[in-house]
Amino acid sequence: QVQLVESGGGLVQAGGSLRLSCAASGRTFSNYPMGWFRQAPGKEREFVAASRRSGSDTAYAGSVKGRFTFFRDNAKNTVYLQMNSLKPEDTAVYYCATSHTFTIATMTSEKDYDYWGQGTQVTVSS
Q: Is 90 exceeded by the pLDDT of residue 57?
């Protein structure tokens, strides 16, 4: 069965950096959509970054574009989210997700994903 395990979250000061990891198992993920979402307390889960397949362009939410970088390490079957210039508003639980199909209708919608990790907490202090 497909499993996704996030790690790398923690507490950082504003302006700092973190790298989140999502270790995948159950299949090879290079040809499948992979995405990062986040959910802050009292907020709906929101899109952060995603790509349809390895080597494809990555989409970013406007709030993180230029600060966050999504990339894949296919040899490790792992995807990452490098987060730089962190802001307090980035505080949230971050989730990685994938789909059981190669093609999804809307990459930025959580409804298009079938498998989710448990999440990792990111806290950015002011």
A: no
Q: How many CB atoms lie within 10 A of CB 7?
A: 14
8 Å CB contact between 14 and 124: yes
Tokens 């059981």 map to which residue?
Answer: 100
- The DSSP symbol for 87 reads -
Given a cut of 90, whether residue 4 has pLDDT beyond it is: yes
> Closest Cα partner for 70 from 110, 61, 31, 11?
61
d(CA 7, CA 60): 20
Find the angle CA(119)-CA(122)-CA(126) to the nearest 5 degrees.
160
User: Are the beta carbons of 77 and 22 closer than 8 angstroms?
Assistant: no
d(CA 56, CA 103): 13
Task: Provide the pairing of β-strand 92-98 with 120-125.
Answer: antiparallel
Residue 40 CB neighbour total at 10 angstroms? 14
Of 42-46, 51-55, 117-121, least confident by mean pLDDT is 51-55
Dist. CA 82–CA 19, nearest whole Å: 4
